[in-house]
Amino acid sequence: EIIPRCNKCNGIVKPYVVLYEEPLDSYTIEEAVKYIRNASMLIIGGTSLAVYPAAGLVQYFKGDKLVLINKSSTPYDKKANLVINDSIGKVLGSLFDDLH
């Protein structure tokens, strides 16, 4: 696997995502909670919801439409309106193909 490097300093380029077990700053958590609390639908993909902070954010959702997309089951499957047990990449890829 090729590691991406910066063209200027040759440092490793980190993707703009939160990596496994990487902490989130409090502002990001607070903003996520605010948006989740006010959402009527929440679509969660690519997480088992077993690792925090993602696992803790679902409890703030008060809407009536919860969709879970993950290869394996999650602790929230019984609360969801729709559960798709497949790869998030495959599901979104199929959706993209269907829309184009």
Q: Could you describe the 3D structure shown?
A:
It is a single chain. With about 100 residues, the protein is α/β, with parallel strands linked by helices. It has one domain: Rossmann fold, CATH 3.40.50. Helices cover about 30% and strands about 15% of the residues. The chain has 3 helices and 3 strands; from the N terminus they run αβαββα. The protein has a 3-stranded parallel β-sheet, with no helix packed on it. It starts with about 25 loop residues before the first helix and ends with a helix. The mean pLDDT is about 90.
What is this structure's SSE topology?
Layout: H1 26-38, E1 41-45, H2 54-57, E2 65-69, E3 82-84, H3 88-99
Parallel strand pairs: 1-2, 2-3
